[in-house]
Design goal:
Radius of gyration: 16 Å
Shape: globular
Helix content: 25-40%
Number of strands: 6
CATH architecture: 3-Layer(aba) Sandwich
CATH class: Alpha Beta
Distance between the termini: 25 Å
CATH topology: Uracil-DNA Glycosylase, subunit E
Order of helices and strands: HEEHHEHEHHEEHH
Bound molecules: uracil
Strand order of the largest sheet: 1-3-2-4-6-5
Largest sheet: 6 strands, mixed
Strand content: 5-15%
Structural class: alpha/beta
């Protein structure tokens, strides 16, 4: 896998508040026409751990907060089980900040138009660890197409100096309920334990 990042740090914003304001007024792709709320982040701006998902769903679009629907609730449970405090230890955001209609996968041009906001979030939050939840985040941040099942649970070097780990998207876990050894939920649990250890080692 190439370690080269798809994201090159090149934004001129100096604060997250500025970036959020710009994102909230953004009209750079068609998603602005159907969104209710721009979904920028939740969690702590001082977090050492960033989790990047795909894009807002219906609940996120209604509330303006990422990962608050069913997948988000499962993510919260997983973090809690792993003893990771979602309010203090995590900054959660997405590849695209506006909901794709019918929750479709964001188009390349939509992700590209939103890239500047994600770059700025990474540059300004400066997480030491980044989790990429699902294929969309992996493809747009690490720019690789390897299946998550092959690359999850491994740390990759990132241009910002952070370590990046692909993980299953929580919505995939919602569709795969088994907790048997080797199942997606079981593998996620192994990954979260690695994340807790890495946080403790920082
Ligand atoms: N799925 C995502 O990838 N992000 C969200 O914010 C919600 C669901």
């Amino acid at each position: 896998m190439s370690k080269e990042s798809a994201l090159a740090g090149c934004t001129s914003w100096t604060s997250l508040a500025e970036v959020e304001k710009a994102a909230k007024n953004c009209q750079d792709c068609v998603l602005c026409q159907t969104r209710n709320k721009v979904v920028f982040y939740r969690g702590s701006v001082d977090a050492k751990l960033m989790i990047i998902g795909e894009g807002p769903g219906q609940k996120e679009d209604e509330t303006g907060l990422p990962f608050v629907g069913r997948a988000g609730q499962l993510l919260d449970k997983i973090l809690e089980a792993g003893n990771i405090c979602r309010e203090k230890e995590v900054y959660v955001c997405n590849v695209v900040k506006c909901r794709p209609p019918q929750n479709r996968v964001p188009a390349r041009e939509e992700a590209d138009a939103c890239r500047k906001y994600l770059e700025a979030q990474i540059d300004l939050v400066k997480p030491k660890l980044i989790l990429l939840a699902g294929a969309t985040a992996v493809q747009h941040v690490l720019k690789v197409k390897d299946p998550i099942s092959r690359i999850r649970g491994r740390w990759f070097d990132f241009r910002s100096g952070a370590k990046v780990m692909p993980i299953f998207h929580p919505s995939y876990l919602l569709r795969n309920d088994s907790k048997e050894p080797g199942s997606p939920k079981w593998l996620m649990w192994q990954d979260i334990k690695l994340v807790r250890s890495a946080l403790d080692a920082i």
